[in-house]
UniProtKB/TrEMBL annotation, chains A, B:
<dbReference type="GO" id="GO:0005829">
    <property type="term" value="C:cytosol"/>
</dbReference>
<dbReference type="InterPro" id="IPR000801">
    <property type="entry name" value="Esterase-like"/>
</dbReference>
<feature type="active site" description="Charge relay system">
    <location>
        <position position="142"/>
    </location>
</feature>
<dbReference type="Pfam" id="PF00756">
    <property type="entry name" value="Esterase"/>
</dbReference>
<protein>
    <recommendedName>
        <fullName>S-formylglutathione hydrolase</fullName>
        <ecNumber>3.1.2.12</ecNumber>
    </recommendedName>
</protein>
<comment type="function">
    <text>Serine hydrolase involved in the detoxification of formaldehyde.</text>
</comment>
<dbReference type="GO" id="GO:0046294">
    <property type="term" value="P:formaldehyde catabolic process"/>
</dbReference>
<dbReference type="GO" id="GO:0052689">
    <property type="term" value="F:carboxylic ester hydrolase activity"/>
</dbReference>
<dbReference type="InterPro" id="IPR029058">
    <property type="entry name" value="AB_hydrolase_fold"/>
</dbReference>
<dbReference type="InterPro" id="IPR014186">
    <property type="entry name" value="S-formylglutathione_hydrol"/>
</dbReference>
<feature type="active site" description="Charge relay system">
    <location>
        <position position="219"/>
    </location>
</feature>
<keyword id="KW-0378">Hydrolase</keyword>
<keyword id="KW-0719">Serine esterase</keyword>
<comment type="similarity">
    <text>Belongs to the esterase D family.</text>
</comment>
<feature type="active site" description="Charge relay system">
    <location>
        <position position="252"/>
    </location>
</feature>
<dbReference type="GO" id="GO:0018738">
    <property type="term" value="F:S-formylglutathione hydrolase activity"/>
</dbReference>
Length: 272, 272
């Protein structure tokens, strides 16, 4: 693990790191904010399409709140980098910047696009061994909201809490998800369903905490890609505890996230 | 005035604008955050070298505090754009991205690099006529901290308060200032002194508020370019009310600014 940049921030430190990943077989980057003194735990933040390890840590205004709550955050990049797989760099919603937090099974991609295992194995090891905390929760935005919900439903005991901003909750039913899952899994729809929040809840998966979701009503992607109503219906039917807040006039941007990040971090803090 | 982008944010709006400037004879951009409801006044934020209208509004985490204090902020770009003057794009510390908030007198530059008049005339008109508030204060970072201090000392009645992060306080005595002032004013050192915080205080200029400055001790530019101690000595001698806070371990970045922006905005709010 190499520190690329380090900045004192709210009495703690915002840092940018790189390390060699055994899962992706590439160098991977991530950012952290670690408050001064003892910490209670670590939130994993998963970013959306086109993002890197930098978006959340520069734009969300989370450090002040994390410092108050004595929680650190770790923000991985959204895909492996530095490869040149077929079609990897052709579009914003597949390949580089769009790993969807799954382990791919298709030729070429299966050797590197292992973001599920990267987060669940390597990032967890970093959190435990380097940052010395066994307590982890997860949140994310858009594709990263999908990642947070899916990883928490697939591994409920690993996360104390889970929440999301503008998540893709039903990827098997929307263009972004269908394109990505076809690219990463091929045509086998059973594999797709194993990485879909609504399908996982239908299959009986639950998280023990109350899942908090904020969604802007002026979000251009709401109708076509995010489908928040599918989450609400399925969570109700399946008995998952949740709170979905529809936020009048807010869009898909980090201005929306920065407005409500305090509520999310405080929600997580209650579970640590 | 055209709105380029608008995002709901902390119940108000973060917006990006462009307009035709009569002072610079170019299209100029600026950003704003305006809280919901009645506002008490407007803070002008001046950015540092290489910045645009975007840095502060995306990275400083100011909107939450501005919304609480019922203050708006307006952040102009740091120079005219879209020109091709001799030497304008050759270095990061002169020309584009480096207007230094002065009215140039050198050939070519004198027709466009009029950032002093752009702020004091056109931006003030925008604040009064479009945003409907007569109450204005000013703050900035590095080159923009220089701009805030100099404009406030040259026009004390126009600003209710003034503060700065890591300001260049004595440009006539440091490489950044000497290079810029030579380029914008030529060799006439009397013109240079009219835009130097320390020289203005020595010549009897004062601001009626307490000038607040935060400066990181781990700032790479402190010794060579910023020279905070020159401000402290001159302000003491000249009787200017001030508070300079040296912040242990903090650098020149927006992580530093975001840590202390709440203190600056609350300081300004006391004068509105």
């Amino acid at each position: 693990m190499k520190i690329l940049k380090q900045h004192k921030n709210f009495d703690g430190h915002t840092c940018f790191w790189s390390h060699d990943s055994a899962e992706t077989k590439t160098e991977m980057k991530f950012s952290t904010f670690v408050p001064h003194g003892e910490i209670k735990g670590c939130i994993i933040w998963l970013s959306g399409l086109t993002c890197t390890d930098e978006n959340f840590i520069t734009k969300a205004g989370a450090q002040r709140i994390l410092a108050n709550e004595k929680l650190m955050v770790i923000c991985p990049d959204t895909s492996p980098r530095g490869l040149n797989l077929p079609g990897e760099h052709d579009s914003y919603d597949f390949g580089s910047g769009a790993g969807f937090y799954v382990d791919a099974t298709t030729p070429g991609y299966k050797d590197h696009y292992r973001m599920d295992s990267y987060v669940m194995n390597e990032l967890f090891t970093v959190i435990k061994e380097h940052f010395k905390t066994p307590n982890v929760s997860i949140m994310g935005h858009s594709m990263g909201g999908h990642g947070a919900l899916v990883l928490a439903l697939r591994n409920p005991d690993k996360f104390k809490a889970v929440s999301a901003f503008s998540p893709i909750v039903n990827p098997v039913a929307v263009p972004w998800g269908q394109k990505a899952f076809k690219g990463y899994f091929g045509e086998d729809q059973n594999l797709w369903k194993g990485h879909d929040t609504c399908e996982l809840m239908k299959a009986g998966r639950k998280h023990n905490s109350k899942i908090l979701i904020h969604q802007g009503t002026a979000d251009d992607f709401l109708e076509k890609e995010l489908k928040t109503s599918h989450f609400v219906e399925t969570a109700k039917t399946s008995g998952q505890d949740f709170e979905v807040k529809m936020c009048e006039g807010y869009d898909h941007s980090y201005y929306f996230i920065s407005t409500f990040i305090e509520e999310h971090i405080k929600h997580h803090a209650e579970y640590f």
